[in-house]
Amino acid sequence: MLLGGDGAIGEFVRVTGTLQMPDAGRDLFDLRQGAYAIEVRYPRLSVTDKARVRTLTAGSTVVVTGVVARDPELGTYYLNTVTAAAP
Question: Which helix (H) or strand (E) holds 52?
Fold first, then answer.
C-alpha cells in the first residue's frame, strides 16, 4: 500500500498491524507493520467502537479496515477508518 503512493488513495483496504502511539484525544493511532507505520484516524467510528479502540494498548495487534487518504498539509498517507478492532 505504501509503495503504491498516490495510486493507493481512495482504495478500500484491510490491514493488520501493531498499535503504536495511541492518541484517544485526537481519535488516531499509528499502525506498524515491521519497519513501516501509517497513521489511522477514526473520528467517524461509533461511540461504542471508539470506546473499544481506546481499550487497546500500545503493542496490541489491530485489524483496520478503511480508505487510504493523504493529508494535504503534511503530505503523509493515513487510513480513514471504517472499523478497527483486535483480531
Answer: helix 47-54
How many residues are present in the chain? Answer: 87
Cell numbers representing residue 51 in the block: 470506546
Q: What is the pLDDT of residues 8-20, one digit of tens each?
A: 888 888 999 999 9
Domain ranges of the chain: 2-85
CATH code for the part of the protein at 2-85: 2.40.50.140
Burial classification of residue 7, based on how many CB atoms lie within 10 Å of its CB (0-12 exposed, 13-18 middle, 19 or more buried): exposed
**Rounded CA gap, 76 and 54, in Å?**
23
Strands (E), 1-87: 12-23, 28-33, 36-41, 61-70, 77-85
Asked whether 42 and 30 are in contact (CB, 8 A), the reply is no
In contact, 19 and 62? CB cutoff 8 Å: yes
Model confidence, pTM: 0.83
